[in-house]
Each structure stands twice: as C-alpha cells, then as structure tokens.
Amino acid sequence: MKIAFFSSHAYDTETMKAMAKQEGIEHELHFFAHRLQYATAPLATGCDAIVIFVNDTANAAVLHKLHEVGVRAVLLRCAGFDMINLDVAAELGITVLRVPAYSPFAVAEHAAGLMMTLNRKYHRAYNRTREFNFNLQGLLGFDLHGKTVGVMGTGKIGALFGKIAAGFGCKVIAYDVYENAEALSYGIEYVSLDELFAQSDIISLHCPLFPSTHHVINEDAIGKMKKGVMLINTSRGGLIDTKALIRGLKSDKIGSVALDVFEGENGIFYDDHSGEIMQDENFTKLFTFHNVLVTGHQAFFTKEALENIAKTTMDNIRALETSGPYVNEVKK
Ligand code: NAD
C-alpha cells in the first residue's frame, strides 16, 4: 500500500518510521508537512490511505477529492474526529480509523500543569527571575486545598484530571451525560451542569466537541459561574464562545483562563508564525490579558503518547491489509 501522512513534523516522521520498522510494516509511507485541505488533497494521488491529525480538514469537498485520487481509508492519529465528515466518508465507502486512547495521562497532567501555572504564575516568575527581578508583586496565588474543581466530561482524561485535583485536597464535582465508575472511585461527585457552574472555583473542560457541545461555555454559562472562576480548556476550542470569554475576562467575572485549544487554531497552531501579522482578532485579544495562558495544542505531546499513537496507527494499517476487522473504526 501507499500511505500519505499529512501535517507531519520531524517528531511525527521519526516516531512513525521507527514504529513501522519495529512492527515490520513495509508499505510505502510518504510524509508531507502540509495540512490536509482541498488544495493539498492531490498529494495523496495513488495512495490507498492517508493519515491525518487534529487540524487537518476532511470535509465533504476534501473527501470527494481524496476519493477521486484513489484514497479508500482515512486514519486519524488522534482520538477526536470532529475534523472529518463521517456522513460523506460513509457515502463514499471511505473507512475511518482512529487512535481512541494514547495517553490520557499526558492531557490530564498538562491540564493540571496549566492550573498550577495560572494560579502560582510560574510563567511570570520565570521571566522575572531571568532578569534578577525577585519582586513578588503580582504573583499571588491561592491554596488549591479546599477549593472546588468542576470537571466537564469524566471520560478517560477528565476522570484522571479529577483524581489529580482530589490529590491536591480539592473537592471535585463533575458533569457528564454518563457517570463513570472510575471517577466515582476517586470520590468525584456528579452534579447538574448549572450546579457545576455555580459551585466551581476552577472548571476544566474534558468533553468532546459535538454540535450539542459547541459553545457550551457561552454568555449564559459564564453568567452562572462564580466571580473569579478559573477556566481550563484542553479539549477542543469550539467548546468555548471566545467573544463571550473575552467579555467575561474584561468584566472580571472570569479570574483566569488557560487554553491549550482555540476555536480558530486551525492554520495557526503547530507552525511558527513569529514575524507575521496575526489576523484573528479574538486570538490576539486574548494575549492582552495578563491572566490568560495559551499553549499550542500540546497537551498530548509526550514521548509515551507519540509512541502509542504510532503503535495504534501501525495496527490500523495492518487492519487495512486484511480489510478488517476494524477495532478502531469511527462510524457516523
Ligand atoms: P472520552 O471519550 O474518554 O471522554 C469524553 C467524555 O465526555 C465521556 O465521558 C462523555 O460521556 C462525555 N460527554 C459527552 N458529551 C458530553 C456533554 N454534553 N457534557 C459533558 N460530558 C459529555 O474522551 P477523552 O479521551 O477523555 O478525551 C476528551 C477530549 O479531550 C477529547 O474529546 C478531545 O477533544 C480532547 N483531547 C485533547 C488533546 C490535546 O492535546 N489537547 C488530546 C487528546 C484529547
């Protein structure tokens, strides 16, 4: 088979090639730095399958183009599948496989790191001490112990984040459409969404982006939150209405925000744009707030996660060789 990887950085190429060797995969693997979009889809001409990541675009037009050039399978090297139109993939008979879990620890630990950094302002302290400025003004935090942490979505990542927060001595409450026995075993208490908004000092988002969860954090939701709430999003940018978030920050309703994901991140994250004029005004506005911390969709980025992603991708390629069974298939 011929397989094209889109959005490939050196770290992807190295890990994938090493895993292909380890697993004895002898197909032709082609690595492209380009993001998948309509204009770049022809790079997959003659390929049986493509491998894509979170900020690639596999909408109807792109899938039709891929089908036209011979692609019969799309492998996602991530868990989320909001970047692909599953209805169109099914119509065209394109098999969609994903990596359902690679390291929930990576993401939960990053969310905890963001919570600690926002609270104790390590990022500001780092910059100050590099210049021998040891003034503490502006670095005041609060004890996490005894605070209420609200977790939205207690799947693999949310449950672990709740466990970490419980380890700090926080009271952990959660909202999910299903209760997770693992989360309950960590002492996490389920409440309604409104109760979560009303009671939480810190809210961390861990639910997927669906049409039903798009802008779940909007003006109305922010209005129900405690004044000074800390908001952390390591899930998907589209969960938050950025304009409402900015209004919440300006009015001091929101005390601090950490974003690893942003609703306009596609085309921004994963590349160096220093020296360019950033066009997204909502994005640039966020950088004017001292209490906003942004990382570029890096929560997944650990050695273990990259290796697990590569291993499951090779398993998915093996499954394509025999046309199934597909344990990691994503269906509409
Ligand atoms: P998961 O499928 O194990 O858990 C998702 C949970 O969200 C489930 O318990 C589900 O019931 C719940 N949920 C669904 N709809 C909900 C709603 N309306 N309100 C509240 N909860 C709802 O997924 P996971 O592995 O824990 O991943 C969570 C999210 O993290 C993914 O959807 C993905 O978007 C994101 N993610 C981000 C990164 C990163 O690098 N930043 C990496 C991996 C995953």
From TrEMBL:
Q: What is this protein called?
A: D-isomer specific 2-hydroxyacid dehydrogenase
What region holds the D-isomer specific 2-hydroxyacid dehydrogenase catalytic domain?
6-330
Bilayer-crossing regions: none
Q: Supply the InterPro entries for this chain.
A: D-isomer_2_OHA_DH_cat_dom, D-isomer_DH_CS, D-isomer_DH_CS1, D-isomer_DH_NAD-bd, D-LDH-like, NAD(P)-bd_dom_sf
Q: One short Pfam family name for this protein?
A: 2-Hacid_dh_C
Q: Which family does it belong to?
A: Belongs to the D-isomer specific 2-hydroxyacid dehydrogenase family.
Q: Which UniProt keywords apply?
A: NAD, Oxidoreductase
The Gene Ontology terms for molecular function here are: NAD binding; oxidoreductase activity, acting on the CH-OH group of donors, NAD or NADP as acceptor
Which part of the chain is the D-isomer specific 2-hydroxyacid dehydrogenase NAD-binding domain? 113-299
Q: Organism source for this protein?
A: Achlya hypogyna (Oomycete)
